[in-house]
């Protein structure tokens, strides 16, 4: 502090002063070991010592600096003692006195001339007088002796100074006399004598103090003055002359010094605070730098390591789960009934509903349930009648919470998309580049909502794929697979905005193969994900509109009115647009009760009385119920004014209702038990009879349940296939098992078939719009709903409650659960009456007037005619003739012909022009022959010879859906080849089978191809897409399917239903899953003969019906040699039909089967009964291939002699002359020149 600071200027002393300021601040803020004053005093003592030492040892050069420091120090000591010493006398120590006196002596303060030294001498006098006034006799004596010595040698030149000295000394003297401290008085008397002698004349004492004892050598002065100082003369003199001047002198002499020191301390304190703040700032900056350079990198690295470690653990767990799943799957494959280690006693199979949907959004399929639970405990708990469990009504508990968050007005769920997002556009452009590296676009936490559970996870969107990672703890639900998924963006067909728990926070993603996912996000995140997905995928922006606008833009209503789509498909599409989904029981699709007759022996769909009145809600079909409901509505009044009037306290669609209907199939059985607190509901409340359920609706105005889609396509839910113990009825004690069907239904399949027919009937078509008005339309809300007795409890309407307004998490969850179970009304799609459907006759009239609308041949089976085309493959059998169904045309080529592909037995390939709807000519169609097939120089043949043992048939060839690729099997090198029909050359050759490829088939969506081989295996291949068009096959098959013991001769595949079907010469049909390659079941078509049975042809309908053609090998006669067998999608044998001819090709189109035979017949049969729909058409020569065009307007038949027969409706409208010209491809030609199919083919109907 002294020697550490160089110099004696103001800045040096400012730095020293900061030490004292720091001590002061520390003392006020903290409790120190020593008082702050003591610390400061010790510091000053050391400083005085160092100052004395420095002055003593100083050279001539450094002396001025040391002198300056000493002077400043003396001023500081004097100020400190005068300020702090008044409060704390202990500060006036002997050591300070000695060091101060020594320092002043060394500076020769008393004898130096000049103003500075005079002021310093005054400071010295003041210090000495201060020490003299202390109670410590030693300190007082030392100070007195020193002052006495100074006065003896120093001149007192001014009266003011004389008065000051006299006043101060006399004050000390008088105090000692009063306190009777004789010691003090004794050593003060010599000083007083010296002082009086010095100032006697100066103060005119002779004049004013005549009685003053003589100071010059009087032996009794000690005693005399002691008496005199109490005399009036002395007191008057002091009070009148000395004291006033003394005070005046103090003010004038020392006040300036006090102010200077006060300013010094202030500046020191301020400098200290500045430096303190600077240090704190530097410390803060240092801390920040430390954070940036050390802590944050460490934390980042630590987080990365933690993430890496957790990721590694997750990967290990996933790997373990995947390995376990593969082992289980491998074991099941090995020990299943068709496996190499097949167990003699196969485990009983149990099933659950699959999430696979067909293109009508039917969930038809059951899959193996490897975690089956018979729920015996739930049955036992239900039957434990001794324990009474009161059911708490959650609605009453939470009613107040719901009332508080009621919403008066509902805004449309419209998403405003940015008009242009450069970043997204760039991402899209980058993604389209060939070989583009995949980049992450965004990721968000979300929930995957399934019918069973809500799975937490993370969605990642990249430039090429969409990923979902399952973050749930329990990932063993589906054999360790979890719910992770990955799909190319190109597979996304639609994305819809959805609500979940009444919040606008969810998306539903629909893929090309009918897979769909329901994802729930944080409310503010959903739109961001949706916008990015639209921009990356370039999807239609219809989804950004409200459901009302979406329906309008889709054109579905007009299609339904024009009978272009079925009633079922229209209702399903309305449900989808209105936010109904299979993935959420609270928003399950809703379908109407359509029949009122469940007791007749026969169902007459031509009788209007068998149908329900679709213009009324189901609860008020009975007029008595309608009256009760109306009276209840009119009398209802809520005192709080919160609850609006309502007709029904329950709802026509809710989670409990769905589980009520589907209780016999998993996972709904488990969900029902979960809802009922771990037990089955009592048997009398179960869904046990369709007639009884309808009767309950008629009798009870509080039961308003409508139906679910499964009533129109899913017979399995009517059977207790899993053998659950559903209890006994209380009165009859009858056990509840399968659902009791109406009398007119012979089986669950028969009920579904007839119920579906009823849905598509003329009566329902004419009145369905009335029910749509109630559920989705203008009668859903407002005055029209009141008039129609169609008002439900306000909480069921979308947006009626703002759940985000409930701050308590538990309360909000409880309200969500209540509303979820209570039911939710669909989005209102129409605010005006729904248009009426056209009658069938009106539609046919319209079609007859339109040029672009070909007639469906299945609707005019009695009016079919056959036309032939020659010159394609003269006298060489035609083994393939097909018009691919997804041919795209640009705007420029719109209206130009489609491509028809033909393949002859000698591998000659033709690509012809085809227009099916020209009504200006007699045969309605236009065929333009490929000129290359006639010219030997330009003919195109498939490369590579076929194996000698292979018969070239239609099953060896598949044409891609866009007509650009031809896939072929049967080659000598066991390869599956891909030929470009555009380039006319082989573009792919895949050798994976161990023997010759015998059959091929593709799925409806063009995603997968399946091949069968003599090596007894089948392989599922993924079709490579580029820009939405197929360009080849993946080099490695997706699945290799085993199980047959002989050559595979027929295959079929349905990606949407996740089914790969194969038939073999071993007489079995085996069904595997496409996505995982799991063995599902083996079908053995019935056969009474001991001869070997082959499965020569297979076909899968849109609804999953499996049609099998079997043939007895080695049988000489045709009698009972061939048969057709129909199976349900779940492997149930429905019917069989023996055939009189040898089938050569077979295809299924809608509800019809088209067969071609060796005997030269083309026959059309009903898919469900397998009976003939019309007399077979005789083609006179063996049929080699059959196919139906995409409009169901024509059947293409390839014959043994190379002719192409085109079967069409032969009832022309006003037939015009063949000379009429028509503009086609920008040229004008005579119609007769374009159409090669003018010639009518003479056929004979088989009447046998």
TrEMBL record:
InterPro entries to which the protein is assigned, alphabetical: BEACH_dom, BEACH_dom_sf, BEACH_Domain, NBCH_WD40, PH-BEACH_dom, PH-like_dom_sf, WD40/YVTN_repeat-like_dom_sf, WD40_repeat_dom_sf
Domain (BEACH): residue spans on this chain: 545-837
Nucleus found in the keyword field: no
Localisation: Endoplasmic reticulum
GO biological processes: intracellular protein localization; myeloid cell differentiation
GO molecular-function term, one example from the UniProt record: protein kinase binding
Top-level taxon of the source organism: Eukaryota
BEACH-type PH domain ranges (all copies): 435-534
Signal peptide from the UniProt entry: none
WD repeat residue numbers: 1041-1082
Annotated family: Belongs to the WD repeat neurobeachin family.
Protein name: Neurobeachin-like protein 2
